[in-house]
Amino acid sequence: MASKVFENTARRIVIYSDDGSCKLIATRRANKTERYGHTAFRGSYWILNTLKRTVGGYEPIVFSGLNYRYDFKKDIIDALQSSTRFTEAYKELSA
């Protein structure tokens, strides 16, 4: 069985559904501010993009039960617990 978690870093998560027909990409974002000539990043959050595989590539799709924005990476993993499409990826991420 192939791994369903393609990438799991501090700034990005890429996982595939159990049947491989969908892909979930979570990216960490932060607000950029400049103070006294220095750049600071504040208020980080995570953005979810879900895609469905088609003949020509991937097209965006919305899953009920998954929000677009999360505050913490753990919140994304907890949301995958109730998902029926990403059960294998949840097992890998929570281990």
Large-scale geometry: elongated
Helix content: 10-25%
Structural Rg: 15 Å
Task: Please work out how many helical segments DSSP would assign.
Answer: 2
The helix-strand sequence is: EEEEEEHH
Strand content: over 45%
Sheet having the most strands: 6 strands, antiparallel
> How far apart are the termini?
17 Å
Look at the structure and give the mean pLDDT: 90
Low-confidence stretches: none
Please render the helix and strand layout as text.
Layout: E1 5-8, E2 12-16, E3 22-35, E4 38-54, E5 57-60, E6 69-70, H1 73-81, H2 87-94
Helix pairs in contact: 1-2
Can you describe this structure?
- The protein is an alpha+beta fold and 95 residues long.
- Helices cover 18% and strands 48% of the residues.
- It is built from two helices and six strands, in the order E-E-E-E-E-E-H-H.
- It has helices spanning 73-81, 87-94; strands spanning 5-8, 12-16, 22-35, 38-54, 57-60, 69-70.
- Strands 1, 2, 3, 4, 5 and 6 form a six-stranded antiparallel sheet that branches.
- Strand 4 (38-54) and strand 5 form a beta hairpin.
- Helix 1 packs across helix 2.
- It is elongated, with a radius of gyration of 15 Å.
- The mean pLDDT is 90.
Notable characteristics:
six-stranded antiparallel β-sheet, 6 strands, 18% helix, elongated
Q: What's the short story on this structure?
A:
With 95 residues, the protein is an alpha+beta fold. 18% of the residues lie in helices and 48% in strands.
